[in-house]
Amino acid sequence: MLDCTAMTALCLRFSDDARPDLPLDTGVHALALRDGRLVPVASDDAWLLQICHDRRGIWLVVAPGVRGIHVNGRPVRQLALLRAGDSIHAEGHELLLVAPREHPPLPPPDPIPTGSVHLVLRGIGGDHHGRSVSLEQPRWIGSASGCDLRIEGHGIVPEHARVALRSGQVVLDQTGAEVWLNGEPVRQAVLQSGDQLVFGGRHRFVLEGPPASLQTPVAVTPLPPEPPTPAPAHWTQRVPWLLVAALLLALLLSGLLMFGPR
Q: Which SUPFAM superfamilies does this entry report, sorted A to Z (predicted)?
């Protein structure tokens, strides 16, 4: 297999044979059916589907009039936005969009305070499609009745996996069976915002949240205290001004009386 270890290195995996992964560099990648296989072709040749990689993301474009193209089991007529871990079915063939990466060691069990990281698992396929579950506490996923996310089907065990916070990071661990992360099978991993988890082939979840919240919270330097507001001057401090004003008024009245019309 081609080594696509960077998170930004996306590959297209041909699941039905042993061909090497197709790197999805920036640009348009066209595929056509040739001798019963989906193969890359030039963009000006007749094509079945195209995968476009640009600064906006990864897009699947279906050729006009073509039917039977599915992404994660849902039919696509024209255009679909893809993410790492998606499964594309076309003409009886399955393609996986994968983003392999190196997995660092799991952090030690040093959970951060509850509520300090705002992340959710959002269902995008299966029984929990559209449902979001907060990760402010550990979440068990499996077929057991006590699981936070109860899923059933082929290959699902009672306590299939746990997703929890450790030292400011989201960790997938204690897996009782294989989990697919961005198209790759794993048993444990440190997760990142945008990762897609697949259980049993059809239960799909995406980790959502601001990337900055995946880091250990940074200490905030408090603002310096505001200078105290000076107290209003006491009446005794205003007395000299009152005396001066009274004196000027007396002088003015005396002048008027002395030099005024008689």
A: SMAD/FHA domain
- Structure confidence at residue 51 (pLDDT): 96
CATH of the domain at 38: 2.60.200.20
Record the pTM: 0.70
Q: Which of 211, 214, 182 is nearest to 196 (CA)?
A: 182
Select from 169, 189, 208 the last residue of a domain. 208
124 and 93 in one domain?
A: no
Tell whether 221 is covered by a domain: no
Interval 13-21 mean pLDDT: 86
Instruction: Give the count of beta carbons closer than 10 Å to the beta carbon of residue 81.
Output: 11
Range of the domain at 26: 11-98
